[in-house]
């Protein structure tokens, strides 16, 4: 970084108002026209390429790259991915950011983790060595400018997808310092990574986004600045499913004080503090097929995971089908009823305009009320009148 850049940053910070500074905390950073600052997006998945954004080179999954035992080759792969991120960013800067959410450096400590293909090894030394090589490729060799900004994830002790926001990884100091931390420390000390993403889980009973290890360990490994970004909707979990603090004001403030710099949140869909109680009536005690929307506009798209279980553990925005009606691919399934737990109002109204995956026509019931009872059927014309922005798709 040249001497000119820090002075320019100090000048900009002095000119920003408090609301403008708050707007820069979000993943989708708000523009500041009066200072010539355009909108900015941070966060692009690039574990082994960016083909999910369109035509691009598809490299082997990370665990396959690790099987080469070749740091030089892995660094070259990282450089190629970084070049393609740059190309995608040049073509669509509003959609593709240069802060890349890669590599994953969680040691593969449990073969039952459903995301082991994202990691390098069960050995923390090998994980650190190979992740450093990949991050160096992503970062580039220019002395003052980054090709991309590699972001290590997920800090810390993250190897669980089931109830991942409510489980605690409890470990003694020796395991922490000899097994979990070294994999993160190597890329940071080498100057390969410039950011770290906090994880969904708790560590020794404390939400990872509030962990004292962010300031006490992570930022002590280098004299350079390290950005800490929150995982998608994870800071909102502090006052929601984790119930660690009483409300979102306290939760977000605590995350800031703990060292989180960027929030991957969708405030338009974040539930109000009392939403789990209001949605209790919508829980189903019998086996159902449930579409749980885990994505948001923070990612720019929505994705659904399909589970078959006796009840929905997390009352999120969901559509429920009777098992007898579960046939074929999911877009063709007919909803038997709809219950909704989203938006700041709790369970109703839902969905917001143009919420992906929802249909509104004479054949489709509208979302249920907070009591869990089915609402009357609504025609497309009536739905359009209710949603001026257009009928939800």
What does this structure look like?
The structure is a single chain. With 393 residues, the chain is an alpha/beta fold. It is 27% helix and 12% strand. The chain folds into two domains: 42-258, Glycoside hydrolase, family 3, N-terminal domain (TIM Barrel); 269-393, no CATH class. It is built from eleven helices and 14 strands. It is globular, with a radius of gyration of 22 Å. The N and C termini lie far apart (47 Å).
Please state roughly what percent of the residues sit in beta strands, choosing from under 5%, 5-15%, 15-25%, 25-35%, 35-45% or over 45%.
5-15%
Separation of termini?
47 Å
Spatial ordering of strands, largest sheet: 3-4-5-7-10
> Mind telling me which CATH architecture of the largest domain this is?
Alpha-Beta Barrel
- Rounded mean pLDDT score: 75
Helix % is 25-40%
How many structural units, i.e. domains?
2
What is the CATH H-level superfamily of the largest domain?
A: Glycoside hydrolase, family 3, N-terminal domain
Strand count, sense and barrel status of the largest sheet are: 5 strands, parallel
User: Would you report the number of β strands?
Assistant: 14
